[in-house]
């Protein structure tokens, strides 16, 4: 079996993001618009390979999606590219359930 990928509980991820940790949301634009962490950066999984150069390699990076599946794939890919990526368990579903901060885009940029 492959090595286990590092994971972080959503409550700890909320604390780390609020303290300045990098949080990458790999959902698609419509999901982001419906609600996201105000501290997150959107890099959809579909664009991750072409945008990997935007992801810092000098510090841990938290990776989140809706429920944890896409972020797990993104974490695996990013780690193979030298990024200290950590999967956020439960994704934005868990984030919202525990009362993590949310922003929504109500107008187009």
Task: Give the SSE map.
Elements: E1 7-8, H1 10-18, E2 22-25, H2 29-34, E3 40-42, H3 45-51, E4 61-64, H4 69-80, E5 85-88, H5 91-97
Parallel strand pairs: 1-5, 2-3, 2-4, 4-5
Give me some keywords for this one.
5 helices, 109 residues, Oxidized Rhodanese, domain 1
Structural summary, described in words:
- The chain is an alpha/beta fold and 109 residues long.
- It has a single domain (7-97), classed as Oxidized Rhodanese, domain 1, CATH 3.40.250.
- 38% of the residues lie in helices and 16% in strands.
- The protein has helices spanning 10-18, 29-34, 45-51, 69-80, 91-97, and strands at residues 7-8, 22-25, 40-42, 61-64, 85-88.
- It has a five-stranded parallel beta sheet.
- Helix 2 links the parallel strand 2 and strand 3.
- It is globular and about 30 Å long.
Task: Describe the structure concisely for a colleague.
With 109 residues, the chain is α/β, with parallel strands linked by helices. The chain is built from five helices and five strands. The radius of gyration is 13 Å and the shape is globular.
């Amino acid at each position: 079996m492959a090595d286990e990928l590092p994971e972080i509980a959503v409550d700890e991820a909320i604390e780390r993001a609020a303290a300045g940790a990098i949080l990458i949301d790999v959902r698609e634009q419509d999901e982001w618009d419906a609600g996201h962490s105000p501290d997150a950066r959107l890099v959809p999984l579909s664009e991750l390979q072409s945008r990997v150069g935007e992801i810092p390699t000098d510090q841990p990076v938290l990776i989140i999606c809706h429920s944890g599946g896409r972020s797990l794939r993104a974490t695996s890919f990013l780690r193979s590219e030298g990024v200290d990526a950590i999967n956020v368990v439960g994704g934005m579903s868990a984030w919202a359930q525990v009362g993590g901060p949310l922003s929504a885009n109500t107008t187009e940029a």
